[in-house]
Amino acid sequence: MAEKRKKKYCFQDVWEEEFFFTTVKEKCVCLICGATVAIAKRHNVERHFDTCHKSYNANYPPGSALQAEKAYYSTLVDSMQCQTSH
Ligand SMILES: [Zn+2]
Question: Model pTM?
Answer without folding.
Answer: 0.59
